[in-house]
Design goal:
- The protein is mostly helical and 235 residues long.
- The protein has two domains: 67 residues, Homeodomain-like (Arc Repressor Mutant, subunit A, Orthogonal Bundle); 122 residues, Tetracycline Repressor, domain 2.
- 75% of the residues lie in helices and 0% in strands.
- The chain contains twelve helices and no strands.
Length: 235
């Protein structure tokens, strides 16, 4: 008369085994990799657990086993992209060059994955931001920056990088896909050139440089200016 309970136990055990097999096969790494593919090709609005489940040929429940919600998934995806950047510095690289490499790596990552810029601008203490801080801070220590100045120097560099992230995020929201950069900047430059010369002498002066400037080179110039100031702390 105890047979039904035994059958129920066996059935439950089989369900547990199937669930374990699904969760083992569907790793968090695979979920994040697929989420990045969706974000890169279709944008943040397209990343839903239903779309992710369809792409992975599984149920949403299997995804929830690894990731609690979309915010956690976005943070994990951004952290994964940034982790590749900050760990991709060749051993033995001089500290200033390592910082430039990290900064440019983040720049290129945001350029290749615009949604990363949006994510970095949302939460200042998420893992992706902490990874950047740790990578930059370690190089500042190796550079010999005095300990009392390390946090300020790291903050100056990281906040500059995050400012870029916010800028890219705003541009991604405002500009339609396929916008011609040169034409867009030329239009902006024409407006600058028409500003009141009494109120905006500098903006009128640099207007001609706007259409042809290189964003990446300008970004690196800013990093070099900050590093030059940090160099004064080391002397």
């Amino acid at each position: 008369m105890f047979q039904p309970c035994q059958n129920g136990a066996v059935t439950k055990a089989k369900r547990v085994q199937r669930t374990q097999r699904r969760t083992d096969a569907l790793s968090k790494e695979r979920i994040i990799e697929t989420a990045i593919e969706i974000l890169d090709t279709e944008g943040e609005s397209a990343l839903t657990f239903r779309a992710l489940a369809a792409r992975l040929a599984t149920g949403s429940g299997a995804i929830y086993w690894h990731v609690a919600n979309k915010d956690e998934l976005l943070a994990a995806a951004a952290s994964d992209v940034i982790a590749r950047v900050v760990t991709d510095v060749a051993g033995g690289t001089e500290s200033r060059e390592a910082i430039r490499s990290i900064a440019l790596g983040v720049y290129d990552a945001i350029d290749a994955h615009p949604w990363v810029g949006t994510q970095l601008s949302r939460e200042p203490w998420q893992f992706a931001v902490l990874r950047i801080f740790e990578a930059v801070g370690g190089q500042l220590q190796a550079l010999g920056v005095p300990e009392p100045a390390q946090f300020n120097c790291a903050s100056a560099l990281v906040n500059y990088v995050l400012g870029l992230a916010g800028h890219h995020a705003a541009a991604a929201r405002l500009l339609a896909p396929g916008t011609d950069r040169t034409a867009f900047l030329a239009t902006a430059a024409a407006r600058w050139a028409q500003l009141d010369p009494a109120q905006y002498p500098f903006m009128r002066q640099v207007a001609a440089q706007l259409p042809g400037h290189d964003d990446r080179e300008q970004f690196l110039a800013g990093i070099d200016l900050i590093l030059a100031g940090i160099g004064e702390k080391v002397r």
